Structure formats: structure tokens, C-alpha cells
Amino acid sequence: MWQRISDLFFKMTWLNDFFAWFLEKVFHLSLKSKLGQSLQFFLFDVVKIFILLTVLIFLMGMIQSFFPPEKTKKILGNIKGFKGNLLGALLGTVTPFCSCSSIPIFIGFTTAGLPLGTTFSFLISSPMVDMASIILLMSFFGPEIAIVYVIVGLILAILGGTLIDKLKMEDEIQDYIKKMEDHSSFIAEIHLKERLIFAVDQVKQVVSKVWLYVLIGVGIGAIIHNWIPETFIQQVLGENNPFGVVIATLIGAPMYADIFGVLPIAEALFSKGVPMGTLMALMMSVTTLSLPSLIMLSKVVKPKLLGTFIAICLVGILCIGFIFNAIPL
After folding, report:
1. Are 154 and 163 in contact (CB under 8 A)?
2. What gap in Å lies between CA 181 and CA 210, rounded to an integer?
3. Which of 20, 155, 185, 295 is deepest in the core (most CB within 10 A)?
4. Whole-angstrom Cα distance, residue 255 to residue 291?
5. What is the pLDDT of residue 186?
6. Residue 221 burial by CB count (10 A; 0-12/13-18/19+): exposed, middle or buried?
7. Is 301 helix (H, G, I), strand (E, B) or coil?
8. Shortest CA distance to 262 belongs to which of 235, 243, 289?
9. Positions of the chain with pLDDT under 70
């Protein structure tokens, strides 16, 4: 029963079969050719991602409508230590933001006086782990890998926030942020119609931000899947290269994308035999340490705190990659 549900709703095998039929019957392309396989990969992944993206972001928007920033600040304001970091990390799972979009909320939490560890747990988990990523990962790699990815992502976010808490780096926030006043006010309960409008707006906002990266990611994935020799991929990122995790992490860090754009690339690399730990390192690096988000963060925190954040994420991502390469999923 689970396999049927997975094939129907997550993997969408029927959609893949449709595009196979479409390319063969309408365009008379052989699916044994590289061009035919690339087009099938591209069309299937683009449509599948946008279908899942629309449904998932709408559902997440409905959930998020119950937890506006003002309400969240009140909930988290009196919770400190490990519990605060745990809640900050879990909050990141219901916010469908890329790393750059998470920073304005990070600023809002900081000006509201939330503990630094809590805000950084949110900042790590929000772009790396969200509810949409769980379903998308299931559609690409199956439920076991999706659950493991989410768990280790949350652990990294909680440990990162806890370590920053212990280091007492509150003075490393930029001075102008400290002087900003918190103008938030508690929002009254909204009705179902307003929640639906909010959820639809969330879909529009997220899709407008990620559609180009999805197309680029799927395009790169199609090229990797059908045009780059497996031997080359194995030499660079395969399990026989002890530096594969490091290379994947360093390649991912300068890129600006989110989980929706990087998943097709990971899927193509997985088909070429790249170990799952290396793929986890790539996905986490892309979503958490993108260069544009680090530039934005540098305007909010001082160099010492920025360096600490980067070091925590890099070490955590590398450890996750090496551990899961040593214990294959």
C-alpha cells in the first residue's frame, strides 16, 4: 500500500510514463538516445517539483498562518537554553525560506530580544530543513533518507545554536541591530478566508523566487544524468575519493539555491553512484552556506560571530557527510 501511495503521489511514476509517451509519440524521439533521456528527465522533474512545491507551500502557508512572527516571538521569548534552541530549529521546519529570506526574520527575532542560540538554530534549520524538503526528498530518495536528512539537519541546528549560546557572543551583533526597536504587535486571530489568501500568497512568493533555480538545477541534473561519464563523477565525488565530501561541501557553499533547485542535481549524482553522505553535504552546504546569504549576514553580525557560524556549519556538514559515507544508507 505504501509503495502504491509513494509511486502515485511522491515519485509520480505515472507522470514519468506520460512524458515518455509524449516524447515518443508526439516528437518521435527515442528514449534510448541521450537527447530523449535528457528531455524526459527535464520535463518530468520540472513538472513534478512544481506540483509538489505548489501543494506543499500552500499547506505550509496554512500552518504558518497560525504562527505569525509576532506570535512566535511571544512563544519563544520566555524559553531559553536547549528548549529554546529546539523550538527555534523546529520553527525553521515550517518556514519555506531560502537562506537569504531567513535573515530578515532572524533580525526580527534578534530585535525582539530572543536568545542568540534560538535565533541561530532557526537560521540554520530554516533553509536546510522544512516540511517541503521532507516530501521532496521522499519523492527522490525514499522515506528513509528523507527522515535521516531531516533528523541530522535538526541536530546540526540545535547543536549550532547551543554552542553559540555557550560562547556568549551577544556583543557580536552589529550595533545598529541592537538599537532597532521592536515594533511588532500581536496579531488578532484571522479567519479561514484570510488564511487561504495568506497560503496562496506564500505559494506565489516562493515560486516567484525559486522557479529559475529549479529550471537551472533540473537542467544541470539532466546534463549530469545523461552526458557526463559516470567514471568522471566517480573520480571526483565517488566513494573511492576520500576528499569527495570536502569537494561537495566547497562546491555547494558559493552556490545560491535552495533545496528545490539542488535536489535534481543530487538525484542525477546519486544515479551516477555518488554516496549519500556526499550528497547530504552538497545539499546542506548549498542551502545553508550560500555566498549571498553570508554577505547579507555579515551586515547583521560582526566578523567573529560570522566566522563562528560558518565554522560550525562547515564542521557539522563535513561530519555528517563522512559519517553517512562510512555507514551507507
Report:
1. no
2. 32
3. 20
4. 7
5. 46
6. buried
7. strand
8. 289
9. 1-3, 67-78, 94-104, 112, 132, 177-189, 254, 256-258, 328-329
